[in-house]
Amino acid sequence: MAPPRPPLATAYDAEHFRQLGHQLVDQLADHLARATRREGPVLPWAPPEVHIANFPADFPEEPTGDVPALLARVVEGSHHLHHPHYVGHQVSAPLPLAALCDFVSSFLNNGMAVYDMGPIVTAMEHNVLGWMAGTLGMPKGARGVLTSGGSAGNLTALLAARQAKAGFDAWNGGATAGPPLTVLVPETAHYCLARATRVMGWGSGGVTPVPVDAHYRLRPEALEDALATARRAGRHPIAVVASAGSTATGAFDPLEAVADFCAKHGLWFHVDGAHGASTALSPRYRHRVKGIERADSVVWDAHKMMMMPALITAVLFREGQRSFDAFAQEASYLFTGQDTRSWHDVAMRTLECTKEMMALKLYTCLKVLGTRIFADAVTASFDLARRFAERLETAGDFELAVSPDCNIVCFRHTPEGVPPGELDALQVRLRESLVRGGDFYLVQTMLGGKVWLRTTLINPLTTDEDLETLLESLRRAA
Ligand SMILES: Cc1ncc(COP(=O)(O)O)c(C=O)c1O
């Protein structure tokens, strides 16, 4: 009798891998079919204790071989973003092709820090970033990096802004080697901006808030005041951040006016387009990001409106060389040779040392599926949001927070007979009821001191009928 195969030999066996891979793809394809047929819950909600108990760390010493059984439980119990009733946070229902590329990325594991560790994907990253910068209308020399999410991307951009505008070498001398710094940021900005400035050691004054208007867009006429306030507080302002669009309502700040203000005062102009930079892909809605081409830096998440799996964020610099400023430090063990500023050793310019092959997914989908599918997805989701907003306005028992600039719609249910003082609590209860019941996944936000239901129409399979069903479900739950 042949001796049993050592587990490592089986784990790396090509035929074993082939069989398992086919089985897993079948499992995911079946799941995709069910989710897109709207079968089963969006989120099979359970409290953390249940999952902790169901997935204990009771690891066996020998192989158990029950991969499909384990993964079936993972798929079943997870949040189903491909279900058209997923209308929650700004996280995509990834293109299946992109997910397959993710699998290839994990398999090849080309870690990218230096060119040799990812030659093909480094070239793909270079070219895909050039395409993205061109899509935004940035000048020819614009370039950047891909990094792990909008939060890391905004920090990366602000680090470069600091090297360019602080007037002292904060990278080497530290945050206290010169006057305390600040950036002007709309009140509605994502929290990661205030976090980035704190990471840089600027404390709570590192962000100077700029008021927004009734549409939740930055008020350009308030910028002068904000600048003066920052200076009175002893801060040296180096940049203005504009959102395209903001997290809560998806509002697009007036980018051209902010660009003019930055030009006038010699400030760095950063656009947080984590959610909305993709708008530039849509011929119908591209005008919403007019002025983005004048930014010194832009953050653009492909894992939001470009249907990529998390995380793929582009940080684009108008002057490509600026991307070397974010992490001015050198690691000689990695970056040897004459020219330490070679663009193709990407870790010189990213927070990450090793990073996954992000560009593989985006490049492959653009190359194989073409660009129109991305443009159409943005246009369709914005159109859908507009129709949903109109429906809410005419319904009579719903209130729209603000007409949507993109695919984010905030509203509340206002059934007859509910006193205004109880409406906040009602929205919280309604959301909980729909989410826990698995019917829909939507979120909530605070605007003007009130609680609103918040939807992001980010799944391209969501239809007008689904949103009508959402309203009906809310009425029933109320
Ligand atoms: C405007 C904006 N900026 C930044 C972020 C953070 O992006 P990430 O979740 O990729 O870190 C978000 C996330 O929703 C966002 O909406």
From TrEMBL:
Database matches in Gene3D superfamilies: 3.90.1150.170, Aspartate Aminotransferase, domain 1, Type I PLP-dependent aspartate aminotransferase-like (Major domain)
Keywords: Decarboxylase, Lyase, Pyridoxal phosphate
Modified positions (N6-(pyridoxal phosphate)lysine) in chain numbering: 304
Annotated GO biological process: amino acid metabolic process; carboxylic acid metabolic process
Superkingdom to which the source organism belongs: Bacteria
Any one cellular-component term (Gene Ontology): cytoplasm
Family the entry assigns: Belongs to the group II decarboxylase family.
Protein name (database record): L-2,4-diaminobutyrate decarboxylase
Species, as recorded: Cystobacter fuscus (strain ATCC 25194 / DSM 2262 / NBRC 100088 / M29)
